[in-house]
Amino acid sequence: MRAQNSATAPMTIAVDARPESAPVAAAAPGSQGTLLALLGVVSFSLTFPSTVWGLESFGPWSLVAVRSTLAALIAGAFLLAGRVPLPERRHWAGLAVVAGGVVVGFPLLTTLALQTSTTSHAAVVVGLLPLATAALAAVRTGRRPSRTFWAAAGAGAAVVIAFTVQQSGGALSTGDLYLFGALLVCAAGYTEGGRLARLMPGWQVIGWALVLCLPLMVPASAVALALEPVHLTAHGVIGLVWVAAGSTFFGLYVWYRGMAAIGIPRASQLQLAQPLLTLFWSVFLLGESLPPAAPAAAVGVLVCIAVTQRAKS
């Protein structure tokens, strides 16, 4: 269930095993489903550049709190409009894990990281998220992926670690530690979200996780806005609106609908383009200069992810 957000391959877990009795929006067939999935990938790829823009106007804590509050209000409106009943009590603990990992943990840690790390650097590191989630899901569910899967996952991790150490001058920086922490908490949120999405549509999982955070995020927004300086700019406002409405809600909504229409394998292949898209946005929107190692590392990670997709099938 890919925040991400950031959205990643683990989110595909969420749609595949949904019970037939679960309420599902009418799926778009064929090319329309592909278009919806592509819109989700593009939405997620803009998350980091939009966060950098948002930091022009807001402090990191303000940006995360206000982002989550706006996204929760949008999700609540959709849940009310659809007259979606409250989840059963036994599901709230799992929703809390999703909220802590996807709604709060990942946005906060990546926002803190982007204060010192470039968008291109973060895109390569977080490109490891599908592998991290797949590995955690294997541990959580007790499945035993093939040796090929684990070899590819280990190779992807080695590529990312080598890249971060090389870019940081021989040691991990504080920003890198934030990014690796974001990987862990987001992988946990996606794994638990995948389990819950077997019981309810994926968009409702993220919707209720957002609403669950609302009582915390509203006072947090008030406190953060009072303590951190706010300098509104066009970039800052656009960045905030996009990470709240685009990445956190719209991206997840179209992504799940697209996957429901075209299936997991095709959607997963589309998402392999996400890190490279983020690299493109970092140059086009932010004017960053890409180090030669960034696209090479991104491609290396994508190859490893592709191998894991084939190994799992």
Give a short overview.
With 313 residues, this protein is mainly α.
**Total beta strand runs:** 0
- Look at the helices and sheets and give the structural class: mainly alpha
| Main beta-sheet strand count, sense and barrel state | none
| Large-scale geometry | globular
Distance between the termini: 20 Å
| Average predicted confidence as pLDDT | 80
Gyration radius over CA = 18 Å
Enumerate how many helices there are, as a single number: 14
- The string of secondary-structure elements, in order, is HHHHHHHHHHHHHH
* Uncertain residue ranges: 1-28
| Residues in β-strands, percent | under 5%
**Helical content class:** over 70%
What can you tell me about this protein's structure?
With 313 residues, the chain is mostly helical. The protein has 14 helices and no strands. Helix 3 (47-54) packs antiparallel against helix 11. The radius of gyration is 18 Å and the shape is globular.
How would the blueprint of this fold be written?
Blueprint: H1 12-16, H2 30-45, H3 47-54, H4 60-81, H5 92-113, H6 119-126, H7 129-141, H8 147-167, H9 174-196, H10 202-227, H11 234-262, H12 264-271, H13 274-284, H14 293-312
Index terms:
313 residues, mainly alpha, 14 helices, globular
